Amino acid sequence: MSLKPIRILTADDLGIGIAAATAGHASNRPDEPEVGIDDPLAVEALWLLERFGGIIYTGPPGTGKTWTANKVAKALTRGDTSRIRYVQFHPSYQYEDFMQGFRPLKEGGGFKMEDGHFVYMCKEAQRDPKHNYVLVIDELSRGDCGRIFGEALTYLETSKRDLPFKLASGEEISVPRNLVVLATMNPLDRGVDEVDAAFGRRFAQVSMEPSRNALQQFMEISGLPEPLAEGVLRFFDFVNRRARSNPHAAVGHVFFHDVSDADSLRAVWEYQLRFLLEKAFRLDQQGFREVQGRWQAIFPPEEGDPVEEVSVQVSAGGQVDAEQA
Q1: Domain that holds residue 154
Q2: Rounded to an integer, what distance in angstroms lies between the CA atom of residue 161 and that of residue 157?
Q3: 226-242 vs 212-222: helix axis angle to the nearest 10?
């Protein structure tokens, strides 16, 4: 009796692996809710894209800009990640990287003209006009947008989509209407003025601010004990009030996404927030000490901690004055 060969099945073959868990989700967390074209963020994006050439999600660190752009991208493509491309701008990013440029050949030496991310996505979208293609640009303000986009910048406008224009190489292309450009930006980056000038008329800007409601939801999901959660909310309110006069001090809700106990909460300060706030208050040491004190007040005093002595004096008018020793 001959035996049939054994077929080895992976977790993904059975639909229970990482690929299945993350497909159609807005992040790499399997517990994120499914995204769809009827999601409020997607509905807003579609309304804006009828009027503007793209969308910039702008806000301070930790406000979910990249998460939102990813979520909208997956909603607009109905979860087909093959129609999404991600790019991150940086100071040395150039036209040749983004549009078109020469690349060294792997064998035999010499160079070959190759399409960059933007031209590649334009051509892919033109071949498939019935579906959306999405280019997500992270850290838009870290690059020189005028230099990176070149002549394509004008043709991002909705009124100029599908109009042919020539690249520096002489090749003629157009920006199809089904190519969606989403971007993220920190409004305090140095290059923001240049971005505003280049994209002001062409892109809609959606403000992403620290959200108290989102912070509360994070802490409820993670099960952070109520006394700590109340302390975090007090600190969050305090520091973001200070950010009205010192925008660099804004603290986003995403910093607390995975906080579940006192140790993980302390780690947020020790490895992230302390550095952000020291930089924000580098010219105001008293301000930083106040913020640091508000953070320390989140945690109940541990047994054995020194107790501050308080001296009480009674004035001639019978008024009590308390003074910390």
Answers
A1: 18-207
A2: 6
A3: 160
CA dist list (Å): 184 to 38, 68, 135, 139: 22, 9, 12, 5
pLDDT digit string, tens, across residues 73-117: 999 999 999 999 999 999 999 999 999 998 888 877 788 899 999
- Same-domain status, 128 and 27: yes
Backbone angles phi, psi at 64, to 5 degrees: 85, 25
Phi, psi of 309 (to 5 degrees): -85, 140
Residue 311 lies in a domain: no
Tokens standing for 273?
């927030």
Global pTM reads: 0.80
User: Within 10 Å of residue 183's Cβ, how many Cβ atoms?
Assistant: 25
Residues in the chain: 325
Give Cβ neighbours of residue 224 (< 8 Å, ≥ 6 apart).
232, 259, 260, 261, 265
Instruction: Supply 271's token pair.
Output: 């490895």
**Secondary structure class of 158 (helix, strand, coil):** helix
Q: Is residue 320 part of a domain?
A: no
Residues 193, 230, single domain; the answer is no
Cβ neighbours of residue 131 closer than 8 Å, sequence gap 6 or more: 77, 80, 83, 178
Say if residues 216 and 233 touch (Cβ distance below 8 Å). yes
Count of CB atoms situated within 10 Å of the CB of 181: 24
Residue with tokens 């924000």: 280
